[in-house]
Write a structure and sequence with these properties.
CATH superfamily: Ribonuclease Z/Hydroxyacylglutathione hydrolase-like
Order of helices and strands: HEEEHEHHEHEEEEEEHEEHEHEEEEE
Radius of gyration: 20 Å
Strand content: 15-25%
CATH architecture: 4-Layer Sandwich
Largest sheet: 9 strands, mixed
CATH topology: Metallo-beta-lactamase, Chain A
Distance between the termini: 58 Å
Helix content: 10-25%
CATH class: Alpha Beta
Number of domains: 1
Structural class: alpha/beta
Number of helices: 8
């Protein structure tokens, strides 16, 4: 082999090794993009953000146990896909085990710089084991978690394109009722008040330039209506994480139709969430262009769900591969893509003007 050939082989090998160490297409300071990963935790929630400045934020962390299933899926996306070795921020939407279950376990594996929550209660009526479980969270955060109240912002570095993450509900409180009148107020049919911690969920509104994304944890029906009645302080959004895994005690049409998302992602499980009533509400959204599901609802006919190309995982739990959904917002915030897994079709969308 001559010198030129040897040099070429060496160069190709070096590139291959480099690509093996550094995942391609990551959000970072060079490309200016914002990435959002909806990680499959089988009907819990775990949403990872990688900002244009390279900061990382995880909202919720799925179920504990299950052989470390959810923990390992989060770590795989964080380390192997997003190329991060620590978390700058970890947030808890509310105190149900499918949302904070792995925060302590994650802290034993990686460094977490900041913890955010709505405040840690002493007990939870629906979970007798909460004090013991919360003690692990307190230890992991060294009792230094920061309490989010309505209007608070999680501090993220902002570059050329402004980036903001604002708390719009927390502990049953909502943003002041300002903005345009909500034309869907008449669709609200109040449900019995929810005494669980779902109704206390932290909801966050992310703005990146003109792009807007809303996630509400497991916020329930009456508080959803309270947020957008009679006026809508949220306005319209581009991307919406369907609330509470798509259960019908959440996703009040008064809210969902008012925010009028163009794209939705539902973090449901094969037998949890994805309720017919919620799917019907989504179909009524005027501007909806695509709705993604982390799972096919195995209890529903395919004809009642989003098309198969928009579903990340179609099998039941024993055969589930845990494929994630990824949204990537362009550096100027004017467009975004959504795809299933690393090799899925890239669906392109324009941000609202």
């Amino acid at each position: 082999m001559n010198l030129l050939a040897r040099s070429l082989v060496f160069g190709l090998a070096f590139v291959a090794l480099s690509l093996g160490r550094i995942p391609a297409g990551m959000a970072d300071e060079k490309d200016g993009r914002l990435d959002i990963y909806f990680i499959d935790v089988e009907g819990g929630a775990a949403t990872l953000f990688i900002t244009p400045a390279g900061e990382s934020l995880l909202i919720d962390s799925g179920y504990p146990d299950n052989g470390g299933r959810d923990l390992n899926r989060i770590l795989k996306v964080l380390r192997d896909v997003a190329g991060r070795k620590h978390l700058d921020h970890a947030s808890v939407s509310h105190w149900h085990l499918d949302h904070y279950g792995n925060h302590a376990a994650l802290a034993s594996q990686i460094t977490i710089n900041n913890f955010w929550d709505r405040g840690v209660p002493e007990k939870l009526s629906e979970d007798p084991s909460f004090p013991e479980r919360a003690a692990k969270y307190r230890a992991a955060s060294q009792n230094k978690s920061k309490t989010l109240k309505v209007g608070d912002k999680i501090p993220l570095k902002s570059g050329t394109t402004p980036l903001e993450l604002k708390t719009v509900t927390a502990s049953g409180e909502v943003l002041p009722n300002s903005g345009e009148n909500n034309p869907f107020v008449g669709e609200n049919k109040p449900q019995p008040d929810d005494p669980t911690d779902n109704a206390q969920s932290v909801s966050l509104l992310l703005s990146f330039g003109k792009f807007r994304f809303l996630t509400c944890g497991d916020l329930t029906w009456n508080v959803e209506a309270k947020l957008v009645t009679p006026k809508n302080p949220i306005g319209k959004v581009d991307l919406f994480m369907v609330t509470h895994h798509g259960l019908n005690v959440s996703n009040n049409p008064t809210l969902v139709r008012a925010i009028d998302p163009r794209v939705t992602v539902m973090c449901n499980g094969p037998e949890k969430g994805g309720n017919p009533e919620t799917l019907q509400t989504l179909r009524q959204v005027k501007s909806l262009q695509a709705q993604f599901q982390l799972h096919r609802n195995v209890k529903l006919p395919d004809s009642e769900q989003t098309p198969a190309e928009f579903i990340a995982n179609s099998s039941d739990t024993p055969d589930c591969k845990g494929v994630y959904v990824k949204a990537t917002i362009a550096a100027d915030g004017k467009s975004y893509t959504v795809q299933i897994g690393p090799d899925g079709k890239v669906h392109k969308f324009e941000t609202r003007s």
